[in-house]
Every structure is written in C-alpha cells, then in structure tokens.
C-alpha cells in the first residue's frame, strides 16, 4: 500500500471522514448478475478445481463525497471479509493457495488476466468486484494511472503468494481444503457467490 493510501486509510478510520457508516452501506450495493469464469490447471497456475472466478460488474456505487476505497472496505468488512489493503494488482502471474480473495476496483480501470497464461483477460473498472477462489491466477496487464483496488479476505485461511512451478504440487493439495465462505463479500449471506460456490 502506498504511503498516501496508508495515511488516508488511517485518518478515515480515526475520524470517519469520507467513510460510509456500516448501516448505510447496503444502499451502495447494486444487485448484479454474476459473471462466472472457470479455468483449467495450466501446469503453473492450478486454479480452483470446482469454483469459478465470479465478477460483478458495477456492483458498488461510489458516490462523490466518500472515498471510493473506503466504500469498498466497508462493504467487504460488513460481510465479514477483512484484512483489507489498497493498491494495484501485481504485474506478474500469482495466486493464493490457502485463501480466497476479493478485489474491488475503487478508481480507474485495468486489463487483468485471470486463470494464468491460458486464462482470460477481463477489463475491470471502478465499481466492479471480482471474487477469486483459492488457486485463481491473476496478473495486471495494463492499467490507468489512477487504478486503485481494495483487496480483502474471508476470516479464515492463510495468505500466501504462489508464483512458481515448484509450489504447484503443494497448492493442488491445499486449494480444495480452503473452506467456502459464509458470506458473499458484496451481498452477504444471501449473495449469489454462495450459489456459484456450492459445497
């Protein structure tokens, strides 16, 4: 996280300035159809054997007067997805084998490749939310100068970053053991993610 975003987040947490209240955040979430993408193991990136990448286009309203990153953080936190960060997306292929991840675009736009080299490139813009099951490869290919993402995680699992073939065998064993979250990070306990990620 940049020094500017770290400072901004700290001030907002202390003062509440430009940060929505938890009670009002439901009004900032729009019901959207889930777009699902499944990817095969490519030898470097395992991807998830059962659950798809789920993308909600324009799921979160980002009104003027509120910090868009803070809006994403509060939406995710309200639904039990925490340990949030603000930054871009790494420009190299990586995945997490022991935890799921949500990415909410707070500013700008980017082309992001999901699923590894044989995956799919998606254009993401402010208000979009992407939910990555453990094992899903991701890499930023290009981005606007103002591109800013908020990432967060469910309350279980361990953050790891896998980038090489020698991590593949261990990842294949750990990915299916990462539990299904209790809540969709954008829509809560009745969210469409829970239908996409069946037990």
Describe the strand arrangement of the main beta sheet, using strand numbers: 1-2-7-4-9-3
The description of the largest β-sheet is: 6 strands, antiparallel
Shape: globular
CA(first)-CA(last) distance:
34 Å
Low-pLDDT windows of residues: none
Please count the beta strands (DSSP E, at least 2 residues each).
Answer: 9
What is the C-alpha radius of gyration, as a whole number of Å?
16 Å
Keywords:
199 residues; alpha+beta; 6-stranded antiparallel beta sheet; 3-stranded antiparallel beta sheet; 4 helices; 9 strands
Give a written overview of the molecule.
- The structure is a single chain.
- Helix content is 18%, strand content 25%.
- The chain is globular.
- The protein is α+β, with helices and mostly antiparallel strands and 199 residues long.
- The chain has helices at 3-15, 68-78, 168-174, 193-196; strands at 34-37, 53-56, 82-87, 101-107, 109-114, 120-125, 129-132, 138-143, 148-153.
